[in-house]
Amino acid sequence: MCALPREPEKPLYFTILTVASIILLLANWILAIIEYPSLPSVIPSHFNSIGTVDGYSNKVTVFLLPSVASFTLLILLLVAGQLNPMREARILKVIGFLTALLFLLIEVFLLYAAKTGHTPQHFYLVFMLSGIMVIYPFIEMIVDRKRQK
User: Fold this and answer.
1) Rounded Cα distance, 147 and 138, in Å
2) What is the pTM for the complete model shown?
3) What are the residue ranges of helices labelled H in 7-123?
4) Any idea of the CA torsion for 61, 95, 76, 143, to the nearest 10 degrees?
5) Other CB atoms within 10 A of residue 50 CB
6) CB within 10 Å: which end of the chain, N or C, has fewer?
């Protein structure tokens, strides 16, 4: 009888990244649910490139970020679970974690602006994290090529 090829065992950090991503996602939902009753009826819904609020919406939009984050993370984790090459799966796991962190950060900034009426001081963190998410796969590819030589 012919044995099926075994899938390589996933490293422990895959599980850690998945659990951490889910915890960040849950924190996003919990924060939105807890803060919803105390929000004004109209809240900031968009920030421009320097972090100034330039769009407002009904307070129910506070649930938009956790919803989009849930869908995005679900897709990333499902695709990462199907990948066999470890490098690609690792990239998607890290991107999934960074995505969950980014959505939580934006939610915190949105709630801060809604409650205080001020632009968050550290809005640049959104751009830094977004930049890391874009650059990270390229760094992984460069490091992987150097390992192969």
Assistant:
1) 14
2) 0.84
3) 12-35, 64-82, 86-116
4) 170
5) 10
6) N
- Which token pair is 96? 């999934």
For the chain, 149 residues long, give each residue's pLDDT as a single digit of tens.
555 555 557 778 888 999 999 999 999 999 999 999 999 999 988 888 777 888 899 999 999 999 999 999 999 888 887 776 677 888 888 999 999 999 999 999 999 999 998 888 888 898 999 999 999 988 988 888 888 87
Cα–Cα distance for residue pair 136/61, rounded to 1 Å:
30
Q: Taking a C-beta distance cutoff of 8 angstroms, is the pair 44, 65 a contact?
A: no
CB atoms within 10 A of CB 44: 22
